Amino acid sequence: MLVQDAVDQAQKRVGLSDKQPPLPADSLLELWNMAVADSRDRPAFTCLGQTLSYAEVDQLSRRVASYFQRRLKLQAGDRIAIQLPNLIQYPIVVVAAWKLGLIIVNTNPMYTVRELVHQFTDANVKAVVVLDQFYDTLTEALPQTAIEHVVVTRPIDLLPQPKRAVLAGLMKLTGKRPPLPKGDWIPFSELLSAGSNYSGHRASLDDVCALQYTGGTTGASKGVMLTQGSIMSNIAQSLDVLTVVDEPIKYCTTIAPLPIYHIYAYSLCMGLMPATRGHAVLIPNPRDLPGFVRAIKNFKFEIFVGLNSLFVGLLQNKDFLKLDFSRLRMTLSGGMALMDSVANDWQKATGCVVSEGYGMTESSPVISMNPSGFEKIGYAGIPIAGTQIKVVNEEGVEQEVGGIGELCVRGRQVMEGYWQRPEQTSEVLVDGWLHTGDIVSVDEDGYIKIVDRLKDMIIVSGFNVYPNELEQALTLHPDVAQCAAIGVADDKAGEVVKMFVVRTNPKLTAEQVIDYCKAQMAGYKVPKFVEFRDELPMTNVGKVLRKDLKAEEQAKVA
Hints:
By secondary structure, the protein is an alpha/beta fold. 33% of the residues lie in helices and 24% in strands. It has 18 helices and 27 strands. Strand 6, helix 7 (163-174) and strand 7 (186-187) form a beta-alpha-beta unit. The N and C termini lie far apart (48 Å).
């Protein structure tokens, strides 16, 4: 059976459309305006104990849009970078950009000078909004860019008086508030002092509205051109899956700890939230687990969005396990592989099944999801409406159900291409198909199983070894918190497996790890080397950076 035949049957079985659903609006701004019109007084975003309604966020965004246009002379098509963690300032700037037709460049606030210079020069960014604590790094990058305007904000800038003044004083006394930087910059508060007069921009579905940079794991980071049409199509597709439930998901409160600068959270907070008139509780620093739990303990939330590493940390927090999960209806996981053991532990602790999904920046981002009530643990779900897939081997031959190969995707959510990189675009967009670089299999029920990234595959004596499979097996060991597998050079086998392990029991030995693996997997998959670490290198969204581990090993050899 062909893979797409299994998918068609799966979509029909669970009540999903096999066609692209109609768009909820003709642009992201129109979608936002619809939410403001009929839900103006409903909560839109909460952060740092402050909740703003749809109308309040919109009014603030009007002032920002006015300042951008009248004072900074920004015009439709100009690129504006947002270098912030999850603060309410983020959606305010995003909506302001939509109102003017600016192209948003979402930027990791933790980027180094080198990374900032590359992204800002590649996108020819004209203005940037940055958090005060990251301003010093930005100033080192500025001389190498064409940036004309820098807006600096503090976490407390939107809090009402006298709360803002009290918190500012406490932060100064405790040393937690860095002194305001010196330099040629604009305080965020000045943006809010402007009027709300501006000339709006009417977007078309073909307009590029975001340059979303890839992680740069296979060379220089590339700007993915996402259009109004690709993002709106993906919102419609995701809504089609999320509405396959007994109760409507309108007006739900969602815990949103993943950074908005990541496409997964950006689409959720700035797309699905207004589409469902939802309320997003933003978490600026999810690594501060005690602070995270304090921020959400008073909410009865219906939706929780996270990923594997975050779930692991929360399940080890006693205060989190005491929270009220009575209204939790949906837990969404994406961004990295979800370990089966973690999914099972989450369900036991919260009473909610984790619905794993799969996507990538180049697909705006969702490709597949587990529909509520039809979850299959360990699988990334079935392709969403209007999405065709095929699985091809190294020779490009299409595989049938059960076969392993690279996943290729076709649908309206696929990117326009890479910014100013036609050659690299043509390498991944072939005859209308997006080649994902992910190795998968699709079962007879139409569910996608992510095997691994093509670039992370280890070849041991001619046999393909997939790190995800090894990591899934080893994390079942009671003394292993996290692990990561890479391939290292070997004279005989070409490559052998090296496993990096974060252990919960300091008495766990390398020999015990290897013996455990021997009982769980074929001999050629068993790690030849084991190295214990206190922690593994990770991205801000919790993905283990195997490339960093590989680079360390290569440096040792060199």
